[in-house]
Amino acid sequence: MIPAENAVLSLDVGTSSVRTLLFDGRARQVEGFGTQIPYRVETTPDGGVEVDAVELARLSIESLTEVHRQMKSAGIRPAAVACCTFWHNVLGVRPDGTPSTPIIHLFDTRSAGAARELGRRIDARAQHSRTGCVLHPSYLPAKLLWLSQTHPEAFRAANRWMSFGEFLYYRIFGCWVGSSSMASGTGLWNQNANDYDGGILSVLPVTRDQLAPVAGMDQPLCDPLPEYRALWPEFSGIPWFPALGDGACNNIGSGCITPDRFALMVGTSGAMRGVSEAEHMEIPEGLWCYRVDRRRFVLGGALSNGGEVYAWMKRTLALPPEPEIEEQLAALPPGQHGLTILPLFAGERSTKWRGEARAAVAGMSLHTRPIDILRASLESVALRFRNIYDIMVERLGAPREVVATGGALLRSEAWTRMMADALGRPLVACLEKEASSRGAALLALERTGAIGHISELPAETGPVFEPVEAHREIYEDLLRRQRRLYTKLFEES
Asked: What residues does each domain of the chain span?
């Protein structure tokens, strides 16, 4: 039996599925409880990536209903509900609580022109130094301006702009609450002031009162609407903590809670992040800066092209069967393929933030084999992370170790070794399968006082991949070649 006072239910709304998991008071996943419901985003030929907010809320409620049934059958009442969702999303909501727009996803690129327009209106560098977010279609300033210009009726119909997590809680509780974590990833939040940024709001067609109220931000809700009290009696009267950004929770859940441990996550996309408890953060160019909560910053960079590069290669090239791929990758010496690749299939985020940039391959010959292209592509992703790593080291110092998470990376030992070589730092495999859900649960345990600090419950880790000293200069040369190709294609007029 799980002690009821220690159990935390975690709801994770990711970019491809809705998941619930149960964690005990030591932040260990409890087997036999939980759900996972996949869903698909809608895409448009012009770069749109959207999600139906009502349908995603329905799936979240379905997931919660099933895990409530499981827990009630076992006689378990959770002490709290934790939540994390994908960052950088927004939807408009009418006064009656219905959406006036779909959820505009973080990968939606239709607002690239609006981002450039904003760059002509304000000092982009100063704006980034305050908000930690560049003027880019990933973030809300460009999305909101684009919506106002291209969908004026839907834009005017909205009296509130919120993330999906806020919308879900609004439907369940009938009141509006957000988190500083989600607000910090919008591009509308001044990271050091812990408040909305007046500079960016002054050039946008939105006002503070249309955004999640700062008063009451981060505070849990306990009293669902009557229909949900009846549906989930075991979830009523306990704190439901507002949704946090999934990237921040991934750091917490993988044990990367101090500046000397960087988290390297490679799923479909990828990110490298460091967490720091500090009063103030100087935000360097090339990186983003958000918040875990009001006391913790998260600094890092993100790639739109992570595991999807590997997936594209497997779909497109005449590669050997799956078991043989790993053997052949491991047998190939680094860099011997003679290729230089920019793996920018979905444009660039960190560190130059050129959304229009696209992938390029240089150096192919009649002798080039599919496995050579795959090896060079995986090395190229590792080198893109090296660009992020170098800037993070300038700000946070060299990490003691880098912790690897994400199924796309950890399924390939060969790729993990390439990452260690490219970074020149030991890479430690994280054994926490659901680091984001665990991180949300850990923060809830801290907030409820069940633990004094998240550091009390370290993450479980596995093998350590040491960089090979003999490969250092090879990867340095590969990095120089990749940077030269990038300059020729995207920076030279």
From this structure: 4-247, 307-428+466-491
